[in-house]
Specification:
Elements lengths: L1 E2 L4 H11 L7 E4 L8 E4 L5 H11 L3 E4 L6 H6 L1 H17 L6 E5 L23 H16 L3 E5 L2 E2 L9 H10 L4 E4 L3 E2 L2 E2 H11 L6 E4 L6 E2 H10 L9 E4 L18 H6 L5 H18 L2
Parallel strand pairs: 1-2, 1-4, 2-3, 4-5, 5-6, 6-11, 7-10, 8-13
Antiparallel strand pairs: 9-12
């Protein structure tokens, strides 16, 4: 069962598991589903209906890809963020069969970003309510349903909605010959949604349980991320990738270095390379561009 199947990661996970013959795919999201899945439309804040639905379906595997990525919204409406990230998680896990595997997608932002190279044993220190509520969601999952994997990660890809991710904003701006600015002092090791989906599938077939960092092999700055995206579009001339520094104190607090140590990940499955993720992004973007032109 894939929860949040209409989002960027949810779509990728559903697409991958749809082609795995040993699984019967069920999807759940706030929007109406289209396609061959057994799809259920449900608002995660409607806890009674959510609990009844999970109990009725009796899934063997649940992958929760849901989340509010708008940091400003999480700050402005903390109760809503908590309902989605924490309370719905508790409801889902409370209604699972004991032997069911629950995979919970969290964030690298649970850390304060002061040192980077965070391991699974480092103590989280969230700087904003998005990260605080995501951390509380991790705790709710693991205390309610011990048969859980929590994946801390940072991801990129193409959204299905009008809201643009960092990668989409960069691709559309660069393709239009417009300048983009990347922060030289903000570091991460992100995964393309397809890479993260592959990791999720691999983990569903292992005995690993608990918290796990999921990231690419390389640590890069947001500036280098945008430069790499730009260099991968050779037909565009005249674009500029400008360098800048993120200044803490402006708007919602954000960590500067959320790089994740992937040593544990490497012990259970392969760790993807950043360049392969960029290749996936460009293929995805080109396919999307041809569909709309």
């Amino acid at each position: 069962m894939v929860i949040g199947s209409s989002g960027m990661l949810g779509k990728s996970v559903a697409s991958l598991f749809r082609n795995e013959k040993q699984f019967h795919l069920t999807t759940l999201s706030r929007s109406a589903g289209v396609g061959q899945d057994d799809h259920y439309q449900c608002d995660l804040t409607e806890h009674r209906g959510l609990g009844l639905l999970v109990a009725a379906i009796r899934p063997d595997l649940v992958i929760n890809c849901s989340g509010i990525v708008d940091l400003g919204l999480c700050e402005a409406n903390r109760d809503y963020a908590r309902q989605v990230h924490v309370e719905s998680t508790r409801v889902i896990c409370s209604n699972l069969l004991q032997e069911a595997l629950y995979i919970h997608i969290s964030t690298d932002s649970v850390f304060d970003g002061l040192k980077g190279d965070y391991s699974e044993n480092d103590v989280p220190h969230p700087l904003n309510y998005y990260a605080e509520s995501k951390l509380a969601g991790e705790i709710a999952a693991m205390t309610t349903h011990p048969n859980t994997i929590v994946l801390r990660c940072n991801m990129y890809g193409l959204h299905s909605s009008a809201k643009k991710s960092l990668a989409e904003w960069a691709l559309s701006s660069i393709s239009a010959g417009l300048p983009v600015t990347g922060f030289t002092n903000v570091w991460f090791n992100p995964l393309h949604t397809k890479q993260l989906s592959d990791i999720i599938l691999a983990l569903s077939k292992t005995d690993y349980r608990g918290i796990l960092n999921a990231g690419c092999l390389e640590y890069i700055s947001k500036y280098e991320f945008l430069r790499t995206v730009a260099r991968a579009i050779p037909a565009v001339e005249g674009y500029q990738v400008l360098s800048g520094e993120y200044q803490p104190g402006a708007g919602v607090a954000r960590p500067l270095n959320t790089t994740l140590n992937t040593t544990t990940l490497a012990s259970v499955c392969s760790v993807p390379a950043f360049c392969d993720g960029i290749d996936l992004l460009l293929s995805e973007f080109k396919a999307s561009y041809h569909e709309t032109n």
